[in-house]
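Recall the central idea of this unit: under ordinary conditions, the amino acid sequence of a chain determines the structure it adopts. In this exercise we apply that idea directly, starting from the sequence alone.
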Amino acid sequence: MVSKLKNNHILLASASPRRYELLTQLGFKVLVKPVDIDESRYPDESPAVYCQRLAIEKNQIAVERFIAHQPIAIVTADTIVVKGDITLGKPKNSEQVVATLKQLSGGIHSVLTAVCVSYGNRSVSCLQTSEVTFAELDDAWLTSYAATDEPLDKAGGYGIQGSAGRWISFIKGSYSGIMGLPLYETAQLLTKLDIMAVADV
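Accordingly, the structure predicted from this sequence is:
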């Protein structure tokens, strides 16, 4: 890829190793500078609005914190798992892992990932939505899985690329979006800001 960025660097304001790996697939040298914000959902705020707001707010914080030091493109993202209108966050212990995944077992849920990219004085964002179908989870597997560290840093208590992927029978949408950064949509945002061209490979 022939990037328009100096030294081909882009800043990822997220600690997610999955987003780091996905951004490198687009050909960038990724600098990781996580930011934290209050991720509480507002009353009556829809999951879609909530998810996109978090990605935009994280980008604004990152711009304020890092842009004075060097001009650089900044990528932020947020992923939420939604069952009905209920947002399922990152479980904090094995009991929450079991409770969360039992809500997903044998049914369909949505995974929403919002992405925000800023460069110079411009900022663009998008929201990508996928549907994920889980088979009925085996209780013995669930107990064993909940005892590991794998589900603790993941919305909904699972990662599609991890061991829980064996129970996903169908997806409608973006595999990389479910991982945490939809590659097609992210590339479109980067193209809008003239950071990468359509012909880049």
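The chain has a mean pLDDT of 92.
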